[in-house]
Design goal:
By secondary structure, the chain is α/β, with parallel strands linked by helices. It has a 6-stranded mixed sheet, sandwiched between helices. Helix 13 crosses helix 19 and helix 16 packs antiparallel against helix 18.
């Protein structure tokens, strides 16, 4: 009735929120898209882009979700939701099978300092980054603002069936003291307990040049970059940076992430949320490390199982053929430590048990039967073709170089990558599936309007 109202953008945002809360996610995405496309100057544009990415991701439209999240990060580099968007973007990369890239996005959410600037401003930008890395002031007003943003995100997660399922899964497959069991955002208690002294002490203990990787990409030649680094960061040394237990600087090595044996048998955790229309299912167990010998075979295996096109075998069987899920895919979180192998699905509550059974059957099948020649060729081609797309921007090149240096892959890695994938055989896929997938020793987590018959299941 009021197509020219100044409040139309606001109305579209709240319409999207209401539709999303009622699990009408496709209609919610349409409302958010109208907001983003028709009202580019609206103060709600950032929130709309984020919400559009989340809705598209929940619907299994991974490429559209990634596009929305990329637009957010490009247009709003200092927004309060940036960390959450980075994590969402990493999830989209996992679901597409871009595991190296996903790991780099997760790393950027954890501990990184970066900037994008004109080449003419390179030296002054590097000087500012050097200040941030070596002597941050942690102003209390800024810290309090960030604390409020994080606490809000934590509280919102309590109503997110997908996040709850993942949190329950991590708690079930990793021991409580394992770092991969912890939520990156923390808890209300841990965030409330952080004060300025905590931040200063953490920086003094963990930030030093020995554990740092510096990457520079763009319109700056090597000599100019080297001179600027020597001039702006010369005072950041093992003596002035973080100190190790022996009093020396931090080692230039990957952190020691312990092994994770995972569940001894299959378990199930349920959080019943009667006010929801959709249930989110997460199934998984600890996986492998990035530097394990069978990493590339595992990447190809996972692409076939749950990442190719609309979700590989899982998406084809559960979503396309049986129509039981809004989305279904698998991801392989290989990192410094044994990251999780996870299958995720969004389903109607009546289909939860059938979807879980189907997932376990598909996992068992890829462990028993060799994949077809066509599946193998398609998976290898999709992985290799993803590499140029990841290197189209300076940010993508910087992320790739960072990963290469972090894992000591060698400067010829990008040239070797196609052969590393193309030489994976059907026999290697079968072997890695048998070794790395454990349908009888996994955890199943369900959050949504699904009644629990399990002892000790949580209810909300």
């Amino acid at each position: 009735k009021f197509p020219k109202s100044k409040e139309l953008a606001q109305a579209l945002y709240y319409l999207g929120e209401a539709l999303y809360a009622r699990e009408h996610k496709a209609e919610a995405a349409e409302a958010y898209e109208r907001l983003v496309e028709k009202h580019p100057q609206s103060p709600r544009r950032a929130d709309g882009l984020y919400a559009l990415g989340v809705a598209r991701q929940d619907l299994g439209n991974v490429e559209q979700a990634a596009a929305a999240l990329d637009r957010f990060l490009k247009e709003f580099p200092r927004h309060r939701l940036r960390a959450e968007v980075i994590l969402r973007r990493a999830e989209t990369l996992f679901s597409q099978g871009h595991f190296d890239a996903a790991g780099r996005w997760f790393a950027s959410a954890a501990a990184s300092i970066g900037a994008k600037a004109r080449a003419d401003d390179f030296e002054s930008t590097l000087e500012l980054l050097g200040e941030c890395a070596t002597s941050p002031s942690f102003p209390v007003p800024e810290a309090e603002k960030l604390r409020g943003d994080i606490l809000t995100a934590i509280r919102e997660d309590r109503d997110d069936t997908g996040q709850i399922a993942i949190d329950m899964l991590r708690a079930a497959i990793y021991a409580a003291e394992h770092p991969y069991a912890w939520r990156l955002l923390g808890t209300e208690e841990t965030i409330q307990a952080v004060d300025r002294r905590t931040l200063v002490d953490f920086h003094r203990t963990h930030f030093g040049p020995g554990g740092a990787v510096l990457v520079i990409v763009g319109g700056v030649d090597g000599d100019r970059a080297r001179e600027a680094v020597e001039a702006k960061l010369a005072d950041w040394t093992a003596e002035t940076g973080a100190q190790g237990p022996d009093g020396g600087g931090l080692p230039a090595a990957l952190p020691n992430i312990p092994d994770a044996p995972g569940p001894a048998e299959r378990s199930r955790s349920v959080q019943t949320m009667a006010n929801k229309a959709q249930a989110d299912v997460a199934i998984g167990h600890p996986g492998l490390r990035r530097l394990d010998d069978d990493y590339y075979a595992a990447v190809v295996m996972n692409m076939i199982l749950g990442s190719f096109a609309m979700g590989g075998r899982l998406g084809r069987s559960i979503r396309e053929e049986q129509g039981m899920a809004y989305y279904a895919y698998s991801s392989l979180g290989a990192g410094v430590g044994p990251g999780p192998f996870v299958v995720r699905a969004g389903v109607h509550p009546d289909n939860v048990d059938a979807v879980v059974d189907c997932v376990l059957e598909e996992i068992d099948r890829i462990r028993r039967e060799p994949v077809s020649d066509q599946e193998l060729a398609d998976a290898r081609s999709a992985i290799v073709r993803s590499l140029p797309r990841n290197l189209e921007t300076n940010e993508g090149k910087a992320a790739a170089l960072h990963s290469i240096e972090q894992y000591r892959l060698g400067l010829d890695y990008l040239d070797r990558f196609p052969d590393l994938i193309d030489t994976v055989s059907a026999e290697q896929v079968l072997a890695v599936a048998e070794k790395r997938l454990h349908p009888d020793r996994c955890a199943v987590a369900v959050a949504g309007p699904y009644p629990s018959a399990d002892d000790g299941a949580e209810k909300a």
